Description:
alpha+beta
Amino acid sequence: MFDLINTNKRLMQGILAVILLPFAFFGIDSYFRNSDNVQGLATVGDYSISQREFNDALRERQEAIQRMLNGRADAALLDNPELRFAVLDGLIRQHLLTNQALRSGMIVSDRQLQGMISDLPVFQDEGKFSFVRYEQFLKSQGMTPAMFETRLRYDLMRQQSDAAYSDSVFIPRTVAERLLRLSEQQREVSQFMVAPEKFMAQVKLEADAAKKHYDGRQEEFRIPEQARVEYVTLSAESLASQIQVTPAEVEKYYEGHRAQYEVKETRQASHILISFDSGASTEARQKAHAKAEEIYGQLKRDPGKFAELAKNHSQDPGSAANGGDLGLFGRGSMVKPFDDAVFQMIVGDISAPVESQYGYHIIRLTAIKPGQLKGLDEVRGQIEAELKKQLAGRKFAETAENFNNVVFEQSESLKPAADLAKTGIQKSGWITREHADDARLNNPKLLQAIFSEDVLKNKRNTEAVEVAPGVLLAARVIEHKPAVVQPFSDVSAAIVKKLTQQQAGQLAIQDGRDKLEKLKQGKDAQVTWGAPQLVSRIEPKGMSEPVLRQVFKADAGKLPAYTGVDDPRGGFALLKVSRIVEPEKAAADKQKALTEGLQQILGQEGMSAYVTSLRQKADVKISKELLEKK
């Protein structure tokens, strides 16, 4: 079952990334029934999802969205009911699958886990696993190795469940071939557009048509209520830029965290592996040992043949081609018997066969890179940034309450709040109850506060609203425009043009349908066809989707075939299919890609049904009040 993961390392990359697509959740409203006694944010059977676990998952998703949008994510995108439900639903799904995997006896061995971690590029330096980079990455994420490895182990177990469904899907070869032929089939098409512009002069509107339209659709001409505001922000990031760290503070931190900057000793070794299966018989093990001893004897006579013998005899496909070279690794990176042996050797030593669960290893130690402590000057910038971040976080927590109080208690002006935050007062463009062009202001809670009676009529500051993680913003209205319906005199010309175009479009569609009927009857429809072009479902060559779909719906039993469709851009598209070009036999790689794509889609459907069944069996409850709490 684990073969899928071993052969497709890209699955592992997805574990370290937060996917933007929301999880599909089923009947979320049903979770709220009888949820008064929910312990924590939600319960999945006996497991309680805490507010902290949810907040961590939400923050990870928000940070992923920010990374994907280069930090320009709209505040409304970062915290809305849909996102919160999706994040919680993802946690519920994870716990359902993990519980089922554990009950099914599914495991991920230490060796498999270790292999996947060492293969991840994020933990590699010059193509080799780096324990230093591993530690640094985990520290940057606020995780210990044990936390990360437990989380990764569960992720891999869930991947096995996904793989079980995708691997079980069978796509008949004839089905894949048929779908591929359909997708690559080409049709030679000529077009003639019956455009509305040709009928504009024929349109005669009633004298009061525009006024009737205006009177019956007042909302269409309403300019929404608008306001301009001035605002002040308090953020941990801005506070960090105001903080100065002294050399003494840097040195004190360095001395107190020396282990954090210690680069542990690493060793480079090569090996020749003579393997045996975990369930191998005593005879098979003895045979493998005899072969390992024979190779070891050759090496004692001629150590220089190590690389050659590794290429010819080692049964480790990952290193044999490189003469057995395993690169640099730290203590604990290899299985224990191997690890114990290699860290007792001196450079140039070749060990007698060492037995592990994978077979017999003949090891040559080629290099030792001693452990060392990074100098203070080397990490000074890193420490300064970390100290500023820590101090800014504490200062933000301390200042946030004062900021709230000042905004509320001195509600006639934002200057005291700006003085406290040590930032300037900024001004916005026109905003509405639903939208602001400035992402910082485009927060539903803030917009609601701006257009509240207390802020608009009583000329008070808004409350301080958290518009993004670690960012508080307070605003004050400086100009307000009530909603107003544009006068008929201002919009009458636009209404006349719109109604004329609509009627001209209807005349064009009717004329196009009449012409199509004549063509089908073999009559002259006075159509000047455009130049023919070959199109396919995967190469539409500029055709709109409705037009392309109609081209391939046309009955090609007798050519030329005529068809037509209302064009989404207006008017009617007449189409003549004059030739069918069937594709040559599909290349094996294309058929394989299509088959794998279909397997993935059907596997996902099967997995969704499986998760739904687990939900129905589990006692899943959610505290709606806690979920909606910011």
